[in-house]
Design goal:
The chain has strands spanning 13-19, 22-28, 42-46, 50-53, 58-70, 77-89, 94-103, 108-119, 130-139, 153-160, 166-172. The strands form two sheets. An eight-stranded antiparallel β-barrel has the order 3-5-6-7-8-9-10-11. A two-stranded antiparallel ribbon has the order 1-2. The protein is 0% helix and 52% strand. The model is unreliable at 1-18 (pLDDT under 50). A hairpin with a 5-residue loop joins strand 10 and strand 11 (166-172). By secondary structure, it is mostly beta strands.
Length: 183
């Protein structure tokens, strides 16, 4: 769960074993967990797009949306528009997407998105609501305001409303590994 601060998903464990009157207690250290940035890096609202049926279990969907990028260690919001395409599998249920994000100054970044989805009503998917867990990587050739985003890995959620709208919120994965400095 994201609590507005860095999030870690781990806790220490203790095991107690009793055998023939002897008690042994073993403790283990917590794992490092998954740590995310304290503020979202990207938020986007996407209305339902155009859908092309591939077969009984897969669709291709184009999407256009509006979003906000917040640079790391900043409160500056950058308004964006986006467009992309997704392939959705109802068999797994999951999606992979490629989205181009355009800032108001014309700079662009590409999000490659992987998502696992839990639909509220699978029989009506993608309509009917649901939620997805998202991982993504941001890539850009920008040397301007979007440059610090190149190579950034994001994780977050995708909330689907019953009318097919999608609200994506992504935080930076704080892995402790520095981002690459070259392209």
């Amino acid at each position: 769960a994201v609590d507005g601060n860095t999030t870690a998903a781990a806790s220490p464990t203790t095991t107690t074993t009793t055998t023939a009157g002897n008690t042994t207690t073993t403790s283990s250290e917590p794992s490092s967990g998954i740590e995310l940035s304290s503020q979202p890096i990207y938020q986007e609202s996407v209305p339902p797009g155009n859908v092309t049926i591939i077969n009984q279990t897969h669709i291709a969907a184009t999407h256009t949306g509006n979003g906000t990028l917040t640079l790391p260690n900043s409160t500056q919001n950058i308004n964006t528009t986006s467009n992309g395409i997704a392939i959705v599998s109802f068999a797994t249920p999951s999606a992979i997407a490629k989205t181009t994000i355009r800032a108001e100054n014309g700079e662009t970044a590409t999000l490659t998105i992987y998502e696992i989805i839990q639909f509220s009503n699978p029989a009506e998917a993608p309509l009917g609501g649901g939620k997805g867990i998202v991982t993504a990587i941001l890539q850009t050739n920008s040397t301007g305001i979007l440059a610090p985003l190149n190579g950034m890995i994001l994780a977050g959620i995708d909330d689907f409303t019953s009318d097919g709208n999608s609200r994506v919120t992504l935080w930076r994965w704080e892995s402790g590994i520095p981002l690459p400095t070259g392209n």
